[in-house]
Design brief:
Elements (H helix, E strand, L loop, with lengths): L1 H16 L2 H17 L10 H27 L1 H6 L5 H28 L5 H23 L5 H15 L1 H7 L13 H9 L6 H31 L6
Length: 234
């Protein structure tokens, strides 16, 4: 626990120093400005995909940025030879970035719709989506040491992750979408703004948990393959 807390504090300091918090505030202000100046239309149906789409930057891409920074500065190579466990390293990043995304989202939604949403499903949706994004982002960035190498594959991964969000906005429904890992957080996000059935809530929590476990194991293997073997860099 001590190692995790120390690593989490270091990650927060690194995020602040490199402008991640400032970027988060800018994005939140941008969305608030857009939505508060739109005509009085009922856009509630768009909020679930917006919530999950907005979280991508602060989780998937921020963890990619953190890992690339650590590789460039040599701090990742130093951490590899400490007693810090791989799981603690990953958990510190996932928890701090997901917490940042959750706070940003709740504040933004409260500004946009006031109290007309359920806080618990919203926090759950952003939390599980944030963890999925972070772990998928780590798997994506692990093989790379430079931003120019990373950008193209990261865009392809992000597009794959966004399939349920695009289908939702296009009003396209298909049972196979429920196999996609991001469909479960999307159902939880819907529950924040409208009632959903009990089985959908169970699916949202259970399937998200399953995929978080799968991606955590995948991330550990990616760390061992691309970072331990090379001393923290490629």
């Amino acid at each position: 626990m001590n190692r995790f807390l120390v690593t989490a504090r270091w990650d927060v300091a690194l995020q602040v120093r490199n402008g991640f918090y400032a970027a988060t505030a800018f994005v939140a202000a941008f969305w608030a400005l857009i939505f508060t100046h739109l005509p009085p239309l009922d856009l509630t149906w768009l909020l679930p995909p917006m919530v999950l789409g907005n979280a991508l930057l602060g989780t998937f891409y921020f963890i990619g940025g953190l890992v690339l920074l650590e590789k460039a500065e040599g701090t990742l190579a130093a951490q590899v030879v400490t007693p810090l466990r791989i799981g603690e390293y990953l958990a510190a990043k996932v928890v701090t970035l997901t917490a940042l995304a959750a706070v940003e989202t709740v504040l933004l939604i409260a500004l946009l719709v006031g109290g007309r949403f359920a806080v618990l499903p919203l926090v759950m949706a952003v939390s599980v989506a944030g963890m999925l994004y972070c772990l998928a982002g780590f798997v994506t960035v692990a093989p790379y040491s430079a931003i120019n190498e990373y950008l193209l594959p990261s865009g392809l991964y992000a597009a794959l992750l966004w399939i349920p969000l695009l289908a939702y906005m296009a009003q396209w429904h298909h049972p196979l979408l429920y196999l996609h890992p991001l469909q479960a957080p999307l159902v939880l996000a819907e529950a924040a703004f409208a009632p959903v059935s009990a089985w959908e809530l169970a699916y949202g929590v259970g399937y998200s948990t399953l995929w978080i476990g799968i991606l955590f194991v995948w991330s550990r293997r990616a760390f061992s393959r691309h970072m331990l073997a090379s001393g923290g860099g490629d």
